[in-house]
Write a structure and sequence with these properties.
This protein is 36% helix and 23% strand. The mean pLDDT is 93. The chain contains 18 helices and 18 strands. It is of the alpha/beta class. The chain folds into 2 domains: 253 residues, 3-Layer(aba) Sandwich (Rossmann fold); 168 residues, 2-enoyl-CoA Hydratase, Chain A, domain 1, CATH 3.90.226. α16 links the parallel β14 and β15.
């Protein structure tokens, strides 16, 4: 069932447009008594899920009984972050997802299936774990909200990833992230059909059909002044809904460049990016645009740690972003990294494999900390002075001394790739 399907690269949805489309879809679903909203957290603030959650409360009133931000491995949202993202949605409705202890398993994806979709790269079973609130809450409607945009693990974000990762459990998150990493991030980014997505679809079809989940998917692009604007809205409970959103996201969010970049400069909004766990979007989303021997400069005034929690932070500090070969060796040795496959996947994703340099200019990390995880360190003050995010628009710029850079003001809104590398990655 597809309840709404509208959008184009030139479309701009106002709040009233979103309200009209959403309310029309909810009217078709009919009255409900206990509704759970499952939006992303503040690391996906540009998804417009905050606005949509406000509109859900406007529509359902007291029938909206729970709001469960899909934290995945991220730290819990603060009251201030909840207020800024979700506006007038009452704070009393918000619940905190515990990805380590607060989940139920609905079933298990067999290891033979995982081996098949991974091309034999991994062979293990993956549980379909979801929040206990989602599994046992007695809701007669679950509205999973989120943005469809290129993603380093799933290929395209949104849809059932929000359920099985955002509201999922530790083992499933570890194993799906590692599956994506060993299959190859550049083979996945910007693709709707990937090994990890096939696992999520298996979980949905075999284990979650009894859950009353309807997906509300946005496609968000940059407006005329670089601000995020909704280009598409897709609502339904079947895979076609995600495929349509993914097709539009490919058009809206993927920047194909005719030639690779010698230098990219990426700015991380301090309100959104406080760790390299999140900030490495600067690496994921530009890696296919950079030429061999090129340079990525990350201006990160809010980054003050590596992991989103103390355990992941410690692992990143211990092993660093040292490349696939070393990470796989550590995993195979049976040590601590092998028991934390999401961390292993993150370390693979955050390495350039020696193909280009990565310089971080953080607001809250010291030189020795940055260099300790195998990044170069840069002065935040100097970077902001030279590449002012308030005056640089997205695209090519020639600096006063003749240096050419490509500036990315928000890596969360897209994927940048040279034509040759993107086409080669899909072959």
């Amino acid at each position: 069932m597809i309840l709404a399907s509208d959008g184009s690269s030139g479309r701009v949805f106002s709040r009233e447009d979103l309200r009209e489309a959403l309310f029309g879809a909810l009217d078709r679903l009919g009255p409900r008594r206990r509704v759970l909203a499952l939006p992303p957290d503040c690391t996906r603030v540009h998804s417009q899920a905050g606005v949509l959650t406000e509109l859900l409360y406007e529509y359902y009133g007291p029938a909206l009984v729970d709001v469960l931000p899909a934290l995945g491995t991220h730290r819990p949202m603060t009251p201030g972050e909840i207020s800024r993202m979700f506006g007038r949605t009452p704070a009393r409705l918000f619940r905190e997802h515990d990805w380590r202890r607060g989940v139920d398993s609905l079933g298990t994806v067999p290891e033979d299936f995982v081996a098949e979709v991974s091309g034999g790269r991994v062979r293990y079973a993956i549980p379909a774990e979801v929040s206990r609130l989602l599994a046992r809450g007695g809701h007669d409607l679950v509205l999973s909200l989120g943005q469809v945009v290129p993603h380093e693990v799933a290929g395209m974000a949104g849809y059932n990833k929000n359920v099985f990762v955002g509201a999922g459990g530790a083992e499933a998150i570890h194993k799906t992230h590692f599956l994506g990493a060993v299959f190859g991030m550049e083979r996945i980014l910007g693709r709707a059909d990937t090994p990890v997505r096939r696992v999520f679809d298996y979980q949905s079809e075999r284990f979650a059909r009894h859950l009353p989940i309807v997906y509300v998917l946005t496609v968000v692009g940059a407006g005329g002044r670089g601000e995020p604007v909704v280009r598409g809205l897709f609502i339904g409970d079947e895979p076609e809904c995600h495929l349509r959103a993914s097709a539009l996201a490919l058009e809206v969010n993927v920047r194909i460049l005719d030639r690779p970049l010698r230098k990219a400069v990426v700015y991380l909004d301090p309100a959104e990016f406080k760790s390299t766990w999140l900030g490495n979007k600067a690496i994921y989303r530009t890696r296919m645009a950079l030429e061999d021997g090129g340079e990525l400069l990350v201006i990160a005034p809010g980054v003050e740690r590596f992991g989103e929690d103390d355990g992941m932070d410690r692992l990143i500090r211990r092993y660093g972003y040292a490349g696939t070969e070393r990470v796989l060796g550590e995993v195979a040795s049976g040590g601590e990294l092998g028991r934390n496959l999401a961390a292993a996947a993150h370390l693979i994703h955050g390495s350039s494999e020696g193909r280009f340099s990565i310089t971080y200019c953080p607001g809250g990390l010291r030189r020795e900390e940055v260099e300790g995880v195998h990044f170069r360190y840069g002065s935040l003050e100097a970077a902001l002075g030279r590449y002012d995010p308030g005056s640089l628009a997205e695209g090519y710029h020639t600096m006063p001394d003749g240096e050419e850079v490509y500036f990315v003001p928000n890596p969360g809104l897209g994927l940048w790739a040279s034509r040759e590398r993107f086409e080669r990655s899909g072959s």
